[in-house]
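Support reply, case 0932

Customer input (verbatim):
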Amino acid sequence: MMQFLRDAFYRRLALLLLCSFVVVGVLFLLLMHYMVNAYQDEVAQNLHRELARHLVDEKALFVDGQPDRDGLYHLFHNLMVLGPNFEFYLLGPQGEILAYSADPTQIKRQQIDLEPVRAFLDSSAKDPRTIYGQDPRDRGRLKVFSAAPVERDGELKGYMYVIIGSEIFDDVAQGVWQNHIERWVVAVFLGGLILSLIASLWVFGLLTRPLRRLTGDMQRFRAVGLQQELAPTPWDANANDVVHRLGSTFNEMSVSLREQYRRIKTVDEMRRELLTHISHDLRTPLSSLQGYLETWLLSEQLHPEESRRYVETAYRNSKKVNRLVEQLFELACLESADVPMNIEKVVLAELVQDVLQKFTLKARERCVGMDVTPRDTAIAVYGDIEKLERVFSNLVENALRHCGPGDEIIVRLQPRGSRVAVSVKDSGSGIPAADLPHIFDAHYRAANSVYDGNRQGGLGLAITKKLLALHQADICVQSTENRGTAFEFQLRCS
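Our regenerated output:
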């Protein structure tokens, strides 16, 4: 319990609960007091309903048209001795008080309103209403009563008006209440309040325990951040308890945040590594370009053939720099969140034939054969024709880079249900097994990636993979050294 009370939220909840219990308890006591009094009044009035009538029938209350004061005095005195719970009043036809049994010094009014008397006379014992009349001893107090008309020879002489619950009865009842019942009621109320409060706080402690666990999880998550793994608190995602569902959602959110953080961190590291490799790739041709240009400028007398060789070498290096910059820009665009796609129907055989036509000159120079099979114009897919052309260009160029005289490059198209399987296979030098898992990395340099005497970066294959990912296609590779390589992927049929 002390651990709970150290929680500010729990303390506020306990204070609110205590105030609610006190307010409800006081209202309950007031309501109980009112209901007990109302019940007693109703029982007393129904029990003594005929009392005034019996008094009227037993004795003549008027003599020669005037109240028999001596007879009334003895009658009231005897009745007060036998039943101190009653006060007796003889009223005139207009409600004026003619005689009474109370102390004359306590009489505060000389006339009684007859409307409640008439209502009482018109009601029956089965009437559930409790009728209150004016108390002659107090101008503002109402009391239950019994009443009966006093008639002689058919003429109304007045009313017998009996107050049930005399002043003596009120004083005795008040004393008993204050001495015994009041103390018992207060003791029972306080005991019940304390027990109910303890039980309620215990229940609230059980109900708020999951909330405290969730708060602890959040505090630990804030303390360790995204870099360190934490053993998650088991939460039931299918529970009816909203805190359990919230805790499960928090666990999922923390896992997702850590995964996103790892991805961002990995991408950031890859970008830094890529920039390092790209800087190296750019430095080599730029240094060569600068060196040949400086030599060409400083040499005053050069043979025309030697001068041309310097310029051609510088030009090739400038093309390599330009190609690397274009690939780097293209890769950066593909890594952005929004890449526009112009999806249309593409006839693969025609597209591949156009791509192969671009590399015909290079293939002839290297004595490499190229073909597409089958040349069926009915094989069509949905895709962005420019991006697919870039895919085939990268794959064919990569294959040419690893082929020598007598090798061949075959692009095979094979419909498979709702997809078209595409294979770009060459019979070149192949890729070492250790390099296969990394060939789609942007900074990859294969051990055998030599073309025109220069090492090549891996931006082409990295771009190819991202372009195919935009078409919901994944690319895989199979290769054996000195026997060739095959790249395979599938596109959606049109």
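We compared this against your earlier run and they match. Two observations from our side: The radius of gyration is 54 Å. Residues 167-224 form the longest helix (58 residues). Please reopen the case if you see a mismatch on your end.
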